[in-house]
Design goal:
alpha/beta; Spore Coat Polysaccharide Biosynthesis Protein SpsA, Chain A; 2 domains; 5-stranded mixed β-sheet; 3-stranded mixed β-sheet; 38% helix; globular
């Protein structure tokens, strides 16, 4: 029996314009028979408002709309206290929106970027079998995709290897330290920390169990994690998966094959030359997934914005794509 794919996206209010585009692109380009379910995890201090607005977008998924489920974090996080220290962390992290000087925009007033890492791991509790395709809300498809774009003929999730930057090396080393094994050398390429990210459901479930056995509930670990500066670097969700696979299954190639097409992504601080190259890759149909960070879209050069609008128009995504350039969700 062919195992299907479950899509998982973590979203907050400021990214809802991106989610509109992602939803329409899934409906337009993803082979519907390959999708088992679509889970949208809400990660915002204004949880019910975010959930309401996501619900309004569900029809954009077309014939896949009945497979969409909107998930609140309380449904997937661990309820385990983790001793006295864990109980104190839980009291703070689960009630941070009541502490005025520490409130952020993510779930219950926590840092949204940190909490979404926990929720990507917790998504394992939503998917009983098959494969999980983890997306960021900023990802949208720009050409036809199917199971074969994310899963090899041998039934392995597709990935790729790249030389990491300084930040990723620190996440890598701390993630491997979590599982008590030596990290790869600094000269070794490693799996990506970007989305789309495909992984077998049972592997994600095993990783979550392993991480929580060693670190306690992941929402408490990431919620208590310092911002990534100086000595504050810890582990990251995708490097924890890499470490778990290495520790439990021997080596990355035992469960993953190379062949995943990297995303053409425009990040917050990307220089103009690289932005130009990302747009060109999509224009040339050399990438099937495009990403534009929600905080960068309004700072793009006018000619880049024009080119992105043209891509959206050419791919039949102009209706929802226009929301990218609006200030409101």
């Amino acid at each position: 029996m062919t195992q299907k794919i479950t899509l998982v996206t973590v979203v907050y209010l400021e990214e809802l314009r991106n989610l509109r585009l992602q939803a329409q692109s899934v409906a337009a380009f993803f082979e519907p028979g390959d999708i088992s379910a679509i889970h949208i995890i809400v990660n915002d201090r204004q949880q019910q408002e975010c959930k309401r607005l996501v619900r309004e977008m569900v029809p954009l998924y077309g014939e896949l709309a009945d497979r969409v489920r909107i998930v609140e974090p309380e449904e997937i996080i661990s309820k385990r206290a983790g001793g006295f220290a864990g109980a104190v962390k839980r009291a703070v992290i689960h009630n941070r929106d009541r502490i005025p000087f520490r409130v952020k925009s993510g779930w219950r007033g926590n840092n949204g970027w940190l909490m979404q890492q926990a929720f990507k791991l917790c998504a394992a509790r939503l998917v009983p079998d098959g494969f999980v395709l983890i997306l960021d809300a900023k990802n949208f498809f720009v050409s036809k995709v199917s199971r074969s774009d994310f899963i090899s003929e041998e039934g392995k999730a597709l990935s790729f290897l790249e030389m990491p930057g300084k930040a990723h090396r620190k996440w890598l080393k701390n993630s491997f330290r979590t599982f008590g094994i030596p990290a790869p050398s600094d000269a070794a390429p490693i799996p990506p920390s970007t989305t789309p990210y495909c992984v077998r459901a049972d592997v994600l479930r095993g990783c979550l169990a392993g991480v929580e056995e060693k670190l306690g509930p992941v929402q408490l670990y990431f919620g208590h994690k310092p911002l990534v500066k100086g000595a504050g670097w810890k582990a990251s969700e995708f490097m924890l998966i890499y470490a778990y696979v290495t520790q439990r299954h021997g080596a990355w190639p035992n469960l993953f094959d190379e062949g995943l097409q990297p995303v053409a992504g425009i990040s917050r601080k990307m220089d103009d030359e690289t932005v130009d190259s990302m747009i060109t890759l999509v224009e040339n149909r050399s990438r099937n997934v495009f990403s534009v960070h929600s905080t960068r879209v309004h700072n793009l050069r006018p000619d880049y914005r024009t080119r992105i609008r043209k891509i959206l128009e050419d791919r039949g995504l102009a209706a929802t794509g226009s929301f990218l350039f609006r200030q409101e969700p």
